[in-house]
């Protein structure tokens, strides 16, 4: 019986390996042409290896295109390479005196890829659908959207919200006439590309949209392969892809004919601490708060004691930057938030001044009956988070803070995250994210502000930033929320987080492929690189 | 039997029994060293050391270091002793279930026998790695999930053997006589049947052991078991897969080899015990 089973297994393995081999044969065919093309004349096709397949499909009203280019759709506004907001579908936009009414005028020459014109009715339809879908697209601040005439749209907000502009930047416009249940799989839009084929779990093939109104991409066809880290690296080595995302662990190996591009990001990782004392529970009955991390001395000591550069060098092989806030390097980042770290002596002094002493000689500090220890949760299947968690726990041992580790799935972490520190990551081009992570309004809402952080001054700055007329005005208040000289949400102020690193995104790029000036990437490895895909070109 | 004994005497100064005992003793000492090592080795040796990442085996680090600079020798020994611990609990649990069900099937009448045989067939019809993954996953993984999963999946074949043994003993004359003399079922089970199946049980237990350890490693390898920072052998092996393509062979080679040796040692003990037991049993 066992033998039979074994032989069946062997057979299955053989069969599947043949099938996989078959796939490879199939895939290597176009690549043969590619290498020819790369050697000789310019070519107009591109093969990219990414990890994260957008499993929900390509519907902007449910979240597609928030990270990276929406490819198939276009947006009212967009950010340029310097992250300044510029017009896309819009020709101009105006905000009323009270900041509640936004009027957007649009181009009149735009057509969807099926030839139909794009009008205000489509914009209204898109935003109404997005609100009704109740998905990750956060349009809670919007009261109504209406078409003034064929090419003018009026948005009315409940409260003034300067970050509403990001909804206009991130939401691709869908056609009212061609939107249905299967839209996510057959996206029609006014973007630079059209979908040719989507083989779920394998690849997406797109071609240039002839109706596109703006700068046309330099490639007729682009294939996105969805491969895991090993497979993407193997594909790069075999020369079958023009660009492959790779983890830092592979960065030391050279691949012939390809160069390593390391791109700065706000794809950050840090530890979020429960800010309040324990005892309460939230509506779902999950405990809130942690007595140890509610002590500011512990949070500050970890912030000061941790050696961020060592983490970058050790865990990320140097491909990263030390992180001090969730918005490092973005226009609304306050550079005063940078602190001196790896300073064990100051951290020790801070702890002993706050009354933490090792009274029983076990190497762990105590304050009364409270022991300086807590459990740090991390996402188990993410090697970088695991490495960061282990390294930080070991770095804190000499301080006398005992960090126990527990890896788990998000489902498991979600039950623990209000009462235990968690290793999390954020990173977005939308300053509203900072409001989500730090404001008392969003305390305990899903993964936002899990520590129940609250600071009245910070909340006031948030209010002022949101009620500003423009992003420029708001920037001042975003910066002050981080650190205004006396208080703030950064490590200098209340330190509700200990930010650790920004992870550079690494790509192996075929020699001769110019991927333009990459902006500071957001959370997520892969799609953010497509932000400027219309600028990509072959240089030789 | 006797000719083989003579042969054994010719080849070595010890007879077969002594040699078997000797083998068992060595194996036990080896395993004890591994377990003690896991308990006694300093936790400080697996502290991350970002300056000594990915170093190849040397005198300072016998098995090299991993991508966080942790000493692989210490991690391996700790992982093995954890695996042996999990294996011990799992094997004991499985043996107890097998004993209980085997006895129940053979002594509690036709209906019980049918039911239990059906359950055994049911469990044997599915590869138990699959059942194990299912159970461990439902229980949310972790130490508890694995141990319960291992316990609940490894008993069927042993239960079948014990059932057959019990049936054989039960039909023996002295048991029949005992029954006619009015002894209770429990008394017979405890005084007549249990002593007879004890050797089978012990051997079954020893042979379950390597099985359980391998499956524990398999499940943690697949990421369904313990947190990935714990030094379990399955976790170490699955981590090393990521680094094989960068030429860090020592991450997989030494821990894998050690797992093989430990499993083989348990197998040895089981086999030798069987030889010893069946001999004295006869």
Automatic annotation (TrEMBL), chain A:
Q: Which GO terms describe its molecular function?
A: peptide transmembrane transporter activity
Q: Which residues form the Solute-binding protein family domain?
A: 84-440
This protein's GO cellular component annotations are: ATP-binding cassette (ABC) transporter complex; periplasmic space
The protein's UniProt keywords, in alphabetical order, are: Signal, Transport
Q: How does it sit in the membrane?
A: Lipid-anchor
Return the PROSITE patterns for the record.
PROKAR_LIPOPROTEIN, SBP_BACTERIAL_5
User: What compartments host this protein?
Assistant: Cell membrane
Matches recorded under InterPro entries: Peptide/Ni-bd, SBP_5, SBP_5_CS, SBP_5_dom
- Gene Ontology biological-process entries: peptide transport
Instruction: Show which residues constitute the signal peptide.
Output: 1-21
Which family is it part of? Belongs to the bacterial solute-binding protein 5 family.
Q: Please name the PANTHER family in this protein's record.
A: OLIGOPEPTIDE-BINDING PROTEIN APPA (PTHR30290:SF9), PERIPLASMIC BINDING COMPONENT OF ABC TRANSPORTER (PTHR30290)
Identification of the protein by name: Nickel ABC transporter substrate-binding protein
Species of the source: Viridibacillus arvi
UniProtKB/TrEMBL annotation, chain B:
- For this protein, the parts annotated as crossing the membrane are 21-41, 77-103, 115-137, 143-162, 247-266
Q: Which UniProt keywords apply?
A: Cell membrane, Membrane, Transmembrane, Transmembrane helix, Transport
Q: Which InterPro entries match?
A: BP-dependent_transpt_permease, MetI-like, MetI-like_sf
Q: Where is the ABC transmembrane type-1 domain?
A: 80-270
Please give the organism.
Viridibacillus arvi
Please give, as recorded in its UniProt entry, the membrane topology of this protein: Multi-pass membrane protein
Q: Name one GO biological process term.
A: transmembrane transport
Instruction: Identify the Pfam families for this entry.
Output: BPD_transp_1
Stored PANTHER family: ABC TRANSPORTER, OLIGOPEPTIDE TRANSPORT SYSTEM PERMEASE PROTEIN APPC
Q: Where in the cell is it found?
A: Cell membrane
GO CC aspect terms: plasma membrane
Q: Give the family per the record.
A: Belongs to the binding-protein-dependent transport system permease family.
Recorded protein name is Peptide ABC transporter permease
What the entry lists under CDD domains is as follows: TM_PBP2
Q: Does the keyword Protein biosynthesis apply?
A: no
Q: What is its main location?
A: membrane
């Amino acid at each position: 019986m066992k033998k039979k089973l074994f032989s069946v297994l062997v057979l299955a393995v053989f069969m599947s390996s043949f099938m996989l081999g078959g796939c490879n044969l199939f895939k290597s065919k176009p690549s043969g042409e590619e290498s020819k093309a790369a050697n000789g004349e310019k070519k107009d096709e591109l093969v990219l290896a990414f990890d994260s397949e957008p499993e929900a499909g390509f519907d902007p009203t449910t979240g597609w295109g928030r990270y990276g280019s929406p490819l198939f759709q276009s947006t009212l506004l967009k950010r340029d390479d310097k992250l300044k907001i510029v017009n896309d579908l819009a020709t101009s936009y105006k905000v009323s005196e009270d900041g509640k009414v936004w009027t957007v005028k649009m181009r009149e020459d735009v057509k969807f890829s099926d030839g139909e014109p794009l009008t205000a009715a489509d914009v209204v339809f898109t935003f109404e659908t997005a609100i009704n879908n109740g998905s990750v697209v956060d349009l809670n601040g919007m009261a109504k959207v209406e078409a003034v005439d064929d090419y003018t749209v009026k948005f009315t907000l409940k409260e003034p919200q300067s970050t509403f502009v990001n909804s206009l930047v991130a939401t691709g416009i869908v056609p009212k006439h061609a939107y249905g249940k299967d839209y996510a799989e057959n996206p029609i839009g006014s973007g630079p590309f059209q979908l040719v084929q989507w083989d779920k779990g394998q690849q997406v093939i797109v071609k240039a949209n002839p109706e596109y109104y703006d700068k046309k991409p330099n490639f007729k066809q682009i294939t996105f392969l969805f491969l895991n880290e090993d497979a993407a690296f193997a594909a790069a080595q075999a020369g079958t892809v023009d660009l492959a995302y790779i983890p830092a662990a592979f960065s030391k190996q050279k691949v012939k004919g390809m160069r390593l591009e390391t791109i700065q990001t706000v794809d950050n990782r840090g530890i979020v601490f429960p800010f309040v004392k324990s005892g309460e529970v939230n509506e779902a009955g999950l405990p809130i708060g942690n007595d140890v991390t509610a002590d500011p001395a512990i949070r500050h000591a970890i912030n000061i004691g941790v050696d961020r550069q060592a983490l970058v060098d050790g865990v990320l092989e140097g491909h990263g930057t030390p992180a001090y806030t969730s918005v490092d390097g973005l226009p609304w980042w306050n550079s005063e938030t940078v602190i001196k770290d790896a300073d064990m002596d100051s951290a020790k002094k801070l702890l002993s001044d706050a009354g933490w002493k090792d009274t029983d000689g076990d190497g762990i500090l105590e304050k009364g009956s409270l022991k300086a220890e807590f459990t740090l949760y991390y996402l188990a299947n993410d090697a970088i988070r695991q490495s960061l968690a282990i390294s930080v726990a070991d770095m804190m041992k000499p301080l006398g803070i005992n960090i126990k580790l527990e890896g788990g799935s998000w489902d498991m972490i979600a039950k623990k995250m209000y009462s235990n520190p968690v290793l999390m990551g954020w990173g977005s081009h939308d300053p509203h994210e900072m409001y989500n992570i730090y404001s008392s309004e969003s305390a305990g809402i899903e993964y936002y502000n899990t520590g129940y952080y609250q600071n009245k001054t910070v909340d006031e700055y948030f209010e002022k930033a949101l009620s500003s007329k423009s992003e420029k005005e708001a920037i001042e208040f975003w910066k002050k929320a981080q650190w205004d000289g006396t208080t703030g949400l950064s490590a200098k102020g209340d330190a509700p987080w200990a930010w650790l690193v920004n992870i550079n995104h690494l790509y192996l790029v075929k020699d001769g492929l110019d991927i333009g000036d990459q902006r500071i990437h957001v959370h997520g490895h892969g799609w953010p690189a497509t932000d400027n895909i219309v600028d990509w070109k072959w240089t030789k | 039997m006797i000719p083989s004994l003579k042969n054994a005497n010719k080849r070595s100064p010890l007879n077969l029994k002594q040699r078997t005992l000797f083998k068992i003793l060595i194996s036990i000492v080896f395993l004890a060293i591994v377990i003690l090592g896991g308990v006694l080795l300093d936790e400080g040796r697996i502290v991350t050391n970002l300056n000594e990442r990915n170093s190849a085996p040397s005198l300072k680090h016998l098995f090299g270091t991993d991508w966080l600079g942790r000493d692989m020798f210490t991690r391996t020994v700790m992982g093995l002793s954890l695996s042996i611990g999990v294996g011990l609990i799992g094997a004991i649990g499985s043996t107890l279930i097998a004993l209980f069900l085997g006895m129940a099937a053979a002594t509690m009448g036709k209906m019980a026998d049918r039911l239990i045989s059906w359950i055994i067939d049911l469990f044997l019809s599915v590869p138990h790695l699959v059942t194990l993954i299912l159970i461990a996953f439902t229980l949310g993984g972790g130490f508890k999930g694995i141990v319960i999963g291992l316990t609940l999946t490894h008993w069927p074949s042993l239960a079948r053997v014990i059932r057959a043994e019990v049936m054989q003993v039960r039909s023996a004359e002295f048991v029949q006589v005992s029954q006619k003399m009015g002894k209770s079922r429990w008394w017979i089970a405890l005084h007549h049947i249990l002593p007879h199946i004890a050797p089978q049980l012990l051997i079954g237990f020893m042979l379950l052991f390597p099985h359980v350890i391998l499956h524990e490693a398999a499940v943690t390898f697949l990421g369904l078991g313990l947190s990935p920072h714990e030094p379990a052998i399955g976790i170490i092996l699955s981590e090393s897969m990521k680094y094989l393509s960068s030429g860090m062979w020592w991450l997989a080679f030494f821990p894998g080899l050690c797992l093989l040796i430990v499993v083989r040692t348990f197998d040895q003990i089981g086999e030798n015990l069987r030889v010893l037991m069946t001999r004295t049993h006869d």
